[in-house]
Amino acid sequence: MRIGILGLGRVGAFHAETLSGLPAVESLVVADPFADAAEAAAGRFGAEIASSPRALPAAGVDALVVAAATDAHPALIRAGVEAGVPVLCEKPLARTMAEGVAVRDLVRDSGVPVQIGYHRRFDAGFAAARAAVRSGELGALHTVRCTTLDPAPPPAAYIAASGGIFRDCSVHDFDAVRWVTGREVTEVYATGGNRGAGHIRRAGDADTTGAILTLDDGTIALVSNSRHSGRGYDVRMELHGLADALAVGLDEGLPLRSAEPGVGFPSGTPHTFFMDRFADAYRAGLVAFTEMAAGTRPSPCTVEDALEAGWIAEACTLSRAEHRPVRVAEVRQA
Q1: How far apart, in whole angstroms, are the C-alpha atoms of residue 275 and residue 279?
Q2: DSSP states along 193-245
Q3: Strand partners, 234
C-alpha cells in the first residue's frame, strides 16, 4: 500500500515513522508547506516528496493521512475524497461546525471512507472499559469521570488556531464518553478559568475547564481539563455503576502522588506527553486505517462521530460564555 502524508509536524512525523514500519505499507509520499520537514521525512523513511500538498492526492496513493493544521483539514479531506482516496484526518474535523457539516455531506455523498483520529478508541484501557459497559458487569452507570491534563500550555500560534479548549482538548473526552458508554449527550453545563497562561487568556480562551454532561439515560459525566499538569500528562476515565466500578489510566505512569502513608503507587516514571501515553493506541489506529483503506473494515471513527463530539464542544463553549446549561440540540445544525 502506498500512503500519502500531508503535514510533517510533530504528529505527522510520528505517523510517518509508525506507517513506515507496518507490513501493509510499501511506500510513503509526503508533503508539507515547509520543505525542510518534507525533506527530513524523506531522508528518515525513504519517502517520496510530492510537488505540493494539493498534488499529493493525485500522486497515485492508495490512502491519505491528513496531519496538517486544523484550518486545512476540510480542503485536504475534500481533495482526498474527490480523488477517491480513503482518508485518515487528525481531529478536529474542522475549525467550525459549519465546515464540519459540509465535510460530512461531501463524504456521505461520495462513498469514500474517512476515519477521524480519535486515538483513545484504540487504547487497551478504553477498549476494556467499553467492553465492561457493554457486558453489563458494572450494572447501570450513574457517574462517569473523565480528565485530560496537559503538562504545559501549547504556544500562542497553536492556541490561535485551535478553536478553544473544548474543541481542541475536551473533544477527546467527549468522544470517549460517547464511545465507551454508547450513550449520547443531551445537555451540558461548562465553566472555565485561567490559571497562568497569559497568551491563552489574551486569546479569549480558558486554560482550565470543567463540564457536567447529562447523557440520554440520565448518567452524569464530569469532564475536567487543564493546560497545566506539573507532574505530567494525565488522562483517565472512571466508570461508576450500580454493581461495580472501573478506571482507565491507573497505571504506574500515572502523574499523581498519593498522600496516604505507606502507599507506593504509582511507582513508575510519570507520562510526559500524549505520544508516550498513547503510542500503542496510535499504532493500532493506523493499522485500522490500512484495513479500512484495503476495504476489510468500516471506518472505526466516522465523520458523524467527530461531529457529535464537536456539537458537545460547541454546547460547552456557549455554556461557558453565557453561564447557563445548554442542550446539545440548541447548537446542532442539520
Answers
A1: 5
A2: E-SS-HHHHHTT--SEEEEEEEETTS-EEEEEEES--TT--EEEEEEEESS-E
A3: 149
d(CA 320, CA 283): 35
CATH code at 2-112: 3.40.50.720
Angle at the Cα of 23 from the Cα atoms of 21 and 25, rounded to 5 degrees:
75
C-alpha cell belonging to residue 196: 497562568
Domain boundaries, the chain: 2-112, 121-278+309-331
Q: Which residues have C-beta within 8 Å of that of residue 146, sequence separation ≥ 6?
A: 173, 176, 177, 221, 222, 223, 224, 236, 237, 238
Residue 55 near residue 35 (C-beta atoms within 8 A): no
Q: Is the pLDDT of residue 140 over 90?
A: yes
CA triplet 230, 232, 238: central angle to 5 degrees? Answer: 110
CA distances from 259 to 207, 229, 266 (A): 26, 17, 12
- Parallel/antiparallel/unpaired status of strands 87-90 and 63-66: parallel
Residue in 52, 51, 45, 53 with CA at minimum distance from that of residue 25: 45
The CB density around residue 118, as the number of other CB atoms within 10 Å, is 24
Helix or strand or coil: residue 181?
Answer: helix
Instruction: Tell me the pLDDT tens digit for each residue of 279-321.
Output: 999 999 999 999 999 999 999 999 999 999 999 999 999 999 9
The sheet carrying 234-241 orders its strands as 245-248, 234-241, 141-149, 220-226, 208-215, 185-193, 326-327
Q: Is the peptide bond before 261 cis (omega within 30 degrees of 0)?
A: no
Q: How confident is the model at residue 188 (pLDDT cuts 50, 70, 90)?
A: very high
**pTM above threshold 0.70:** yes
> 121-278+309-331: what fold?
Dihydrodipicolinate Reductase; domain 2 (3.30.360)
